[in-house]
Amino acid sequence: MVTVRPKTRIELALTGIGETHARTRVTTRDVATIVDEPLARGGTNLGPSPTETLMASLIACTNVITQRIAARDGVAIGSLEVEAHARLDRRGAALEQEVEKPFSDIRLEIRVSTDATPEQLETIKADLTRFCPIAKVIRGSGVPIAEEWVVSPLAGG
Q1: Most exposed: 35, 37, 74, 112, by fewest CB within 10 Å?
Q2: Residue 47 has what DSSP assignment?
Q3: Under 8 Å between Cβ of 84 and 58
């Protein structure tokens, strides 16, 4: 019997093409997206800004990793909603002065309906911190991420 082991390291390949001074078309695999600035900053508002894209990545990673942990542990997730709030010092992006840590702090509100016991929920929270690569990079840069979990029971459970 042959055991197939998944790759432990992969290479990500993305391409960005500057369509205007503020809008970039980013492609990976067979998927394209737009990263853009709002109208107020000279963009065309066709997509999230680069900093909003970072926060979107954090939200998406929080969802994916939480769902994977729950599935691994046999925990049902009925709904999962993540809201991110971040304080950004724009002076660096505005070319006014170098800013060592553009984000001073990030707060996530994670609303979930689940059948998890309190112990299972604590495992999910701890493992999310251990395994979400986007959060690890952000925390590794010295930016704290506070998580507020709002948990409700599964409907009918």
Answers
A1: 74
A2: S
A3: yes
Are residues 19 and 32 in contact, defined by beta-carbon separation less than 8 angstroms? no
Buried b vs exposed e over 15-37: b needs ≥16 C-beta within 10 Å?
A: eeeeeeebbbbeeeeeeebbbbb
What does the block give as tokens for 115? Answer: 């059948």
The 10 Å CB-count burial string (b at 16+, else e) for 55-91 is bbbbbebbbebbeebbeeeebebeebebebebebeee
Which of the 8 DSSP states describes residue 80?
Answer: E
CA 27/CA 5 separation, integer angstroms: 28
Token representation of residue 128: 């999310």
Mean pLDDT by 10 residues, the chain (157 residues): 81 95 96 96 96 97 98 97 97 94 97 97 98 97 97 84
Assessment of whether the complete model's pTM goes beyond 0.70: yes
Quick one: residue 116, left, alpha or beta (phi over 0 = left, psi -120 to 50 = alpha)? Answer: beta
Cβ atoms 119, 127 nearer than 8 A:
no
Structure tokens at 133: 């690569």
